[in-house]
Amino acid sequence: MAISCPSCKASGISDTFRFCPHCGANLALPRMCTKCGFKFETQMKFCPKCGTPVAASASAPTASTAPTKNVVEILESEPPPQQGITIEFPYSSSASFEFAVKAARAFSTFKQFGEGKKAIYRVNFPSHDMPAAMELVENLKGWRNRTLYVNGEKVPWDNVFGFIWCYQKRASSFKPDLYCFGYEQQYQTNPWGCVHSELFFTDFAEWFRWGRWVSDKGDWEFDKQRIRHELQRTLYNYRFCPAIQLQLVEDVLAALPNRVNPRNDPDWEFAESHDDTTQGLIVEIKRFGFKEKVVMVGVAPHGTGALEKIAKKVKGVRLALTGK
Predict the structure, then answer these.
(1) How confident is the model over 260-290, as pLDDT tens digits?
(2) β-strand pairing of 153-154 with 85-90
(3) Are 152 and 82 in contact (CB under 8 A)?
(4) pTM confidence score
């Protein structure tokens, strides 16, 4: 009796053959009905349990062919995923190669393209799962042939992982939860939650001069649009840091007063010009017992009152400022 090969579908094969003469498939393996799961002999044309034609059935997996866990599927290369962060790396003679592969295998999205020294390894993960990638990233440190994609677009490595050195420094600091607010460096004290904001809350900070006088009475209006732009620029390469809170940055900016007047607000003082400019608010002050007129080009915080008021409005800031 003639049978068909379950692998290449070749017909007219003698039922006395143990292997397919066309593709070498084992013809002695039992078949499994795709409808009911019943196993039956290869020579049968219909499932003896439910009557499904043999042509619609497939060979049953055996101990040697059934998929097992932790077995890497060798695939042909394909485009990177269009969502999330994707890391690719090839074979390397680096001492950390085996550790990198081991760390990559821990991802459920792990894929291998090719074999041996021509293999390419890939993982993909969402940006909020960045801590899970720390071990892999550390093992790929210094590698030249590593590729990074964000939402399918190839980007420079530091565009995403520029925060690593700072994040590691934070982990080893005296108070990690306060480190990002400049707790260990007084001149870096900030309410934004990142020392890389460069907009520190100190009386000499330049950004307090970003704004305009709206009256000759001393009313100063902050240029919040410029402040936001500068924060976006300075924090861009740190946007994937697990410690950064971008919503906190927006909340603090909203809590910063739109206008202040040092004449009636003790938390603020005038910031005078230190050059020859004549543009600004003319204020008469008393210095060394003499009155003089000085050009004021902005404001500055007087003490910690302004900072404490912002901390009261924005949850999560006060703890960093007080150190408690």
Answers:
(1) 999 999 999 999 887 777 788 988 877 777 7
(2) unpaired
(3) yes
(4) 0.68
